[in-house]
Amino acid sequence: MRLLKFVLLFALTIFLVIIANMHQPFGAPLPPIGHLLNPFSGFWQNAESDQSPDNLQIQDPFLQDEVEVLMDDRLVPHIFAQNISDAYFAQGYVTAMHRLWQMDLSVRAAGGRLAEVVGPRAAKRDQLQRRKGMLMAAQNALESWKRNPEEFALLQAYAKGVNAYINTLAPADYPLGYKLMNFEPEEWTPLHTALFFKSMAETLCFRNYDLRETNARQSFGPELFDYLYPEVNPKQIPIIPLETAFDFDTIPTPSKESALPGNLTQVMPYESLPMSPPSTGSNNWAVNASKTANGNPILCNDPHLNLTLPSIWFEIQLHTPDRNVYGVSLPGIPGVIIGFNENIAWGITNAGHDVLDWYRIDWTDEKKDAYYIDGEVYQVETLVEIIRVRGEESILDTVKYTKWGPVVYEDPTSPYHDLAMRWVAHDVPEERPFYEISTFLKLNAAKNYEDYSEALTGYDSPAQNFVFASKDDDIALKINGRLPIKAKGQGRFIQEGNRSANAWSGFIPKSQIPAALNPEQGYLASANQRSTGPDYPYYYNAGFDDYRGRSINRLLSKMNNITIEDMKALQNNSFSILAEEGTQAMLKLLDSTQLTEEEKKWQQELQNWDYVYTADSRAAVVFEDWYDLAYEMTFDEVIALADSMDIKYPESWRFIELLEMDTASTIFDDQQTTTVEDAQDIVTAAFQKALTELKEKLQDPAYDWAKHKGTHIRHLANLPGFSSGELDMGGHAEALNSVKNAHGPSWRMIVELGAEVKALGIYPGGQSGNPGSRFYDNMISDWSKGEYYQLHFLKKPELDQTLYEINFSK
Amino acid sequence: MKPITYTVLLIVGAFLLQQILPWWILPLYAGVLAFVLKIRPLAAFLLGLLCGALLWGGMAFWLDLQNNSRLSVRMGELFGGLSPNMMIVATALPGAVFAALGACTGSLGRQYVSTE
Question: What is the ipTM of this complex?
């Protein structure tokens, strides 16, 4: 009897211990709860004390010398090293200290290794990442970086720093993300850095509309297509000032006959691959001494990205004998990506040039292992991707590689539709003195325009508009990257892959990329708008911004005696030219005779609106919905097709142009009705519909633009409780203050290049990736109010506001 | 006397052991200790509940205090809307249960061995 009692209770205890150690017990989305809940090694261990830790002493034989790191009152590390290798080691170490889980997850997501830790629900996504050649692209980049031993050694130094930190961790010390998802940190390598780099390329230069535009052209025919989707907005103000001369011998580009696949008789049955939001862009500008109040050049940058916690950026200062640079870094890549030093400042916005084209593969037979180019037969190269899936068998996916690139789309029902992806980020760079990592290494230490120009030559993708300003009053802007030479019209549509003539003719030499230096106007600015005016000799196609660039030019061209306060106001400016033009055009068309008294009140509100998207604006709410509905009603033809195919939508600027200039156009006719509508009918009907839809919400006097937009900062893995609350703030995609629902200025920086370089900065998050830290989200509130912090740009390792120090030695 | 000895040894000992060993050392140690000290089953169970709750709940409480409940608020959301105090309870509970089960098992084992 006693034996029985003992055995039963023993069995029960063991059973419960096993359950509490199980990953996802009985399918519940939980890690082992015994490990998670116990306060000695579980999540409680990540509940950091609000008191700063004591100073740390770290020893590592890899270091050549001592490194002193001051952690300031926002947990920004100020690294003082005697050489760049030690500095990058320390950067790796402190970045890992605060963002290790983010680094790990980002690289897994990019390279298609999420299912390994997350399980089968990530398998399809992983498969797509592999098909897109992300891992291959990273390996190619790494191979090129190895050609320059100094560059490669620095990557290794960074990796060693990260790993030195990882080696200090017992399971109780793991970042919370690892505990919640139940996996362990893995060793960091230069390949991880390369993957992270390619994930930025994926965010910034993966956008492609070939499929959608091809389907649109097939559906509407060439005339209607050209009417709906003209390439150039006549109101556009390009980045490179119009008077800039392009004084070089253009590489001749043969004109191409239509590159559309000949036997393309139906639309493509595919969906576009996921892409980052079209609003992914940024603002930057530089003003020279002639335009500022105190004669100091000023440079500003605010990159617009998905707003996440942990934040995409990590502030840092690196000080060695040959450089003293401050700015934001990307957790996973050594160096400072956007920032300034004692002589110069630089910033980046995305260059929207299309660098991804699709080619239809002409198979020799249904086995699909060989294809034709110019009548010659080429064998496909296959790569078997092994996708590990937690808790299940690995998935094997055979990817076919052609001379164009990987075959990403395969249609099992037709041999005519398979498409290969030609993406510039796949390319192995040609031999040159240095590569991307050195671009930032050199920018970080640049002293003048020549240094900046040289640094940029090592950089291929993602192409960025690099703005520059120096203490000696040079301002410059280059559309910098590996830009394909295309024939006119090439790249908008899917092309026939059996003709080598359809390939890009080459790449624009770095000496011929669009660039400006010290223009008459005294400033240079970019906001992802068209790079050049019509004089630039090389054709390019892209998705460009149409409003922010014009706003900057409208304002900066008239501003003089510019101060820092002016720059803050500019970055936080929530005025939208789209709203201005759209409201005016639609109010002109609005038929008051059709409106009720209530509706006329809103008409009045909109007439009084100043087109500024402040947090408390209610006119903004009405305009947004009115505009969206008018747009949908106008392009009902396109929307009707969207159910059965992936199709392009006309640009906003084109819609407004039609409202302004072509109100009798048949496009305004609603296909569903027997009457023939014109612009006035549509605009009036949309107005009434918008007010009907918004009636309930607007009854609450507190319902405003901030609520309608619902801005919040989202946790990287979307865990409830780990995101921010809703933020009460204004802004709009098309305004300079480009705040949207979960996307916007991920860093705001203002640099004044006086005798002493001064800078302001802020981002919506915190330096620590630990949700238990007081530095997880400490900056969000101030950011939402449009405030900035003085950046501690130190000359020596001395700072009153030091929370603690880390001293590295060998 | 014995209950107090057991309580003190269990809390202090488990605290030290959990610094270096995984969490299930708690029920294991609670059982071994009950076995050695010859605690009777019901007493073992109740003392296990008490010590487990005090150790895990107390530790959680202290960490939560140092942290101004920043993390427990978020973890509570994750667990469906629990408050920080409920998160402490949610921690104390498994501690209590496992310590109690382990202690009682050890006690029953001693009783069985003693009758041999």
Answer: 0.96
